[in-house]
Design brief:
The protein has five helices and twelve strands. The protein is of the alpha+beta class and 285 residues long. It folds into two domains: 178 residues, Jelly Rolls; 81 residues, no CATH class. The strands form two sheets. Strands 1-12-3-8-9-10 form a six-stranded antiparallel beta sheet, with helices on one face. A six-stranded antiparallel beta sheet has the order 2-11-4-5-6-7, with no helix packed on it. The protein is globular and about 65 Å long.
């Protein structure tokens, strides 16, 4: 069942059963989908100057947050977790978070699946199955009596959520781990890879390693395009984000260029050798 919130006067609060309260005292996976037509950085939204939009909060008997999920001022995510003594733990995803960039920043009018995995001394955040953050926690999670979706209408009205909520689920099983994270990451990168190839195919060499044996005339744009791309990725690595994948790409491209150059040089030497032999024979005739 989809829930639609107008971002002005709508919010949803669910009181929990005793059984659900007990489930939340141990390890669990809490999931839901959301979509939003606006972002915290949208200055033309109904309430300009938004610093954070609350999508979900779990509340104790006094209405205090036990843990929450908001869209922060970087158009990324912040998860806040409180233990029974009131100590706060947070997961922040920022513009240079060391994960996939398409997932680290949300887009308008796109559905995202949020998974919050609470285990002993650890909280993990997954978006669309990909792990975007984790933090070590101390103590026990503050007791939870209710769930709230859409924000606090009695608080900062700028932080009220506008959009849709769907597929809310809570289970005592751990549904995400390193294996599922790896599968999700490969899926995202394959999607980005296919989109890039669709637009840039005329300018790129085939991915088959045999490309090294081709001549530049077959692919006239690849030399400048790919070399410039590799240089930009090295600069990105040095100046913005030390992601190993950027280095791996540049190295792979450089190695392939070296192989191609060696093969062409070998061909030129062979041609030169044959030409010299023929010239020698002509001189002796």
């Amino acid at each position: 069942m989809q829930i639609h919130l107008n971002g002005v006067s709508d919010t949803l609060k669910l009181n929990l059963s005793t059984e659900t309260e007990q489930l939340l005292k141990g390890s669990f996976t809490f999931e839901f989908d959301f979509i939003s037509p606006r972002l915290p950085k949208d200055h033309n939204s109904h309430y300009p100057g938004i610093s954070g939009i609350e999508i979900f909060s779990a509340l104790d008997a006094k209405g205090k947050e036990s843990f929450s999920f908001i869209l922060n001022q970087y158009n990324r995510f912040t998860v806040t977790w409180f233990n029974s003594e009131g100590k706060r733990h947070q997961i922040w995803t920022t513009w240079n978070y060391p994960n996939d960039y398409e997932l680290a920043s949300i887009q308008r009018n796109k559905w995202y699946k949020v998974s919050l995995v609470n285990q002993k001394n650890r909280l993990e955040l997954y978006i669309d199955g990909e792990k975007l953050g984790e933090i070590k926690t101390t103590g026990n999670l503050r007791d939870i009596k209710s769930f709230r979706f859409g924000g606090n209408l009695k608080g900062n009205r700028k932080a009220v959520f506008s959009g849709g909520i769907d597929n809310i689920s809570l289970t005592s099983r751990i549904l995400h781990n390193k294996v599922s994270d790896s599968v999700a990451r490969k899926k995202v990168w394959q999607c980005l890879h296919d989109l890039a190839n669709k637009d840039l195919k005329p300018f790129l060499l085939p991915e088959n390693p045999a490309w090294a044996g081709q001549t530049p005339a077959d692919y006239p744009y690849h030399i400048l395009d790919m070399s410039w791309t590799a240089l930009l990725m090295l600069r990105w690595h040095d100046e913005l984000d030390s992601d190993q994948r950027l280095l791996n790409y540049a190295k792979k491209h450089g190695d392939a260029r070296i192989i191609g150059s060696v093969r062409r040089l070998h061909a030129m030497i062979c041609i030169s050798s044959v030409t010299s032999q023929c010239s020698g024979r002509l001189r002796h005739c």
